[in-house]
Design a protein that fits this description.
267 residues, 36% helix, Rossmann fold, 6-stranded mixed beta sheet, single chain, 4-stranded antiparallel beta sheet, alpha/beta
Length: 267
């Protein structure tokens, strides 16, 4: 992919978000291109999730938007998602899957609504394409009857079936156990290899999780972008003090996991 020639799927230009006198996000800019997997990394309060909400048109009332946001070439600014042109809409995966699904509708009905078909063979074929092979067994169930990992994979299926060119995933693995985390990452990684894959903006506080999926990273601290580059570059040679802190924390967590595995096995 030659990013110098292709137009970006997402363009964020000098975006600032303010609530009264408080500047929550300050003058940030970045682009995403077709099928690219980019993570926005930062701790709580860094502004990463607010940035995601500005991009998806789901900001809380009272937040003032400055700068430009363009999706597939269409300037959407601070427009709510419901007021955006169809071709500029964004698919979203939320952290809390329990609130993202309709509790009164079965999984099958919710998938059929997005696909605009009740043909079970079409639904099954698409789920197989997305490597969500276990979901057909869940179609008659309601969200309350599913585990957290199952609900999140349903949310991913709904987001990917929307056909939008940009997918924003806001901390989609945070509330999951390690096995469910891996399943979610595998589904997203598999989808990214397909010809019609959307660009992915992956929001996370965990650089180790992001490293399993993303090609490029943008690091935010206190509402500003402090560093960006390839994931390999940020992991091996971080420049900013905050990025170095994130990388050290990830390495420490990995060491602790290795020690725990050693003690458990005695090897």
């Amino acid at each position: 992919m030659d990013s110098q020639i292709l137009s970006p799927v997402l363009s964020v230009e000098r975006l600032s978000l303010e609530a009264g006198d408080n500047k929550l996000v300050s003058d940030i800019s970045f682009n995403l291109f077709d099928a690219e997997r980019v993570c926005l990394i930062g701790a709580s309060g860094s502004g990463k999730s607010l940035t995601a909400k500005a991009i998806t048109g789901t900001l809380p009332a009272g937040i003032k938007v400055k700068g430009n946001i363009s999706v597939t070439g269409c300037k959407v600014g601070g427009l709510h998602a419901s007021r955006r042109p169809r071709h500029s809409r964004v698919s979203m995966i939320f952290q809390d899957s329990s609130t993202a699904l309709n509790p009164l509708s079965s999984v099958g009905k919710q998938l059929a609504l997005v696909l605009k078909t009740n043909d079970s063979s079409i639904i099954h074929n698409l789920l197989n394409k997305l490597k969500l092979d276990d979901i057909p067994d869940l179609l008659k169930r309601y969200p309350s009857e599913l585990s957290g990992g199952q609900r999140q994979r349903i949310c991913i299926a709904l987001a990917l079936m929307g056909g939008n060119r940009l997918l924003v995933a806001d901390e989609p693995t945070t509330a999951l156990d390690v096995i469910s985390q891996q399943k979610v990452l595998q589904v997203l990684a598999h989808r990214s290899t397909q010809p019609d894959a959307p660009a992915l903006l992956f929001i996370t506080h965990d650089i180790a999780v992001a490293a399993q999926l993303c090609q490029r990273a943008i690091v935010m601290e206190k509402g500003q972008i402090v560093e960006s580059g390839s994931m390999q570059q940020l992991l091996n040679a971080p420049c900013h003090a905050y990025t170095k802190k994130l990388v050290r924390a990830a390495h420490h967590a990995q060491r602790q996991l290795s020690i725990g595995q050693y003690e458990a096995t005695g090897q």
